[in-house]
Amino acid sequence: MTAGVAIVGASGYTGAELFRLLANHPKIKIVGAYGMKNTGRDVSEIHPHLHGIVDLKIEEIDCEKICKTADLVFTATPHGVAMKLVPELLKGNSKVIDLSADYRFDEVKTFERYYTKHESPHLKGVYGLPELYREKIKISNLVANPGCFPTAVILSLAPLVKEGLIDLDHIILDAKTGTSGAGATLTESTHHPVAGANVAAYAATTHRHTPEINQELSKLAGREVRVHFTPHLLPLIRGILSTAHVFLKKSMEKTELLKIYREFYGGEPFVRVRKELPQINYVVGSNYCDIGLEPEAEGGRVVVVAVIDNLVKGASGQAVQNMNLMLGFDETEGLRGPALRP
Question: pLDDT at position 185, please?
């Protein structure tokens, strides 16, 4: 069985990454590339690394046309765009994976507080974190791909939160990301002469991924959780390193904690629990999330570090993982490659 997939938002980094990953997927045919800009131009003109690999032109978005050939559509669009398209795509019987925030929130008012007014609030997507929602993803027609920071943070803390081992009122999150997380559009803060030899905190208490993290950790805990999250921009292209500072309810050895993590993620194809604290170059270019931890000798604090590639497990790779589940393929198909190191 071969499935046809279309990519809406073909000009951006996540669109490019979808093309890269899907080009070698044995059960997928890319049947369309669509966007709001660069229409009429070759995909390989916008993304020269795809020359000779993806032979498609970027077309204007036409939901009716897309649904005639696409079993599944990726909407790799800016926040607020997919909500206008997804209702029509679903009516045309295409499954949809949305890489924006448009369908990540259980409560529309939460989305509207941090983003914009929602135009299709009646539609509800399954939160696309396979490690937590695999069975729901398999039967869903609309999956909301998680944000990059939430992917790393939620996976890093899920075992401790689910088992009720930490103080849920004092979760401190310090996360660092590369510049590709800001997207392909040039901004002052990600311009290389500014970012190339610099480290900067941003949206220190107001980042819009915070409510997404709160929502999912609250579900795991069975009560409200409010984390304290601050991101930082590093002079890297790819990668996220999340450092969580949490406080145990009772003293535990590192071996006990690692056992809990390994049991929680036993059999998970893309989560690797490590003895040491992982580094970004363990995962760049891959769909892995590596997690390590270090308990404090005194005081009950545990430092949990998680690393992902923000464009792969943090975006397009996770989207392909979700696609595999939705279409009944092996979950790891097209995603088995190791990281690029050094």
Answer: 87
**Is residue 2 pLDDT above 90, yes or no?**
yes
Q: What's the predicted TM-score (pTM) here?
A: 0.97
- What architecture is the 149-312 domain classified under in CATH? 2-Layer Sandwich (3.30)
Q: What angle do CA 66, 72, 78 make, to 5 degrees?
A: 75
Element holding 259 (H helix, E strand):
helix 254-264
Residues linked to residue 176 through DSSP beta bridges, in sequence order: 232, 241
Q: Which CATH class is domain 3-124?
A: alpha beta
Domain boundaries, the chain: 3-124, 149-312
133-145 per-position pLDDT tens digit: 999 999 999 999 9
Give the separation between CA 194 and CA 224, rounded to whole angstroms.
39
Token reading at 87: 């209702």
Exposure letters 50-87 (e unless 16+ CB within 10 A, then b)? beeebebebbebebeebbeebbbbbbbbebbbbbebbb
For 112, the token pair is 């509207």
Q: What is the mean pLDDT of residues 206-226?
A: 98
Catalytically annotated residue among 63, 67, 148, 289: 148
Asked if the domains 3-124 and 149-312 are classified in one and the same CATH topology, the answer is no
Indicate whether 255 pLDDT > 90: yes
57 beta partners = 42
Q: Where are the beta strands (DSSP E) in 132-258?
A: 142-144, 172-177, 200-201, 228-233, 240-247
Whether 148 is catalytic is yes
Q: Which whole number is the average pLDDT over 299-320?
A: 97
Tens digit of pLDDT for each residue in 51-93? 999 999 999 999 999 999 999 999 999 999 999 999 999 999 9
To 5 degrees, how large is the angle CA 259–CA 260–CA 264? 115
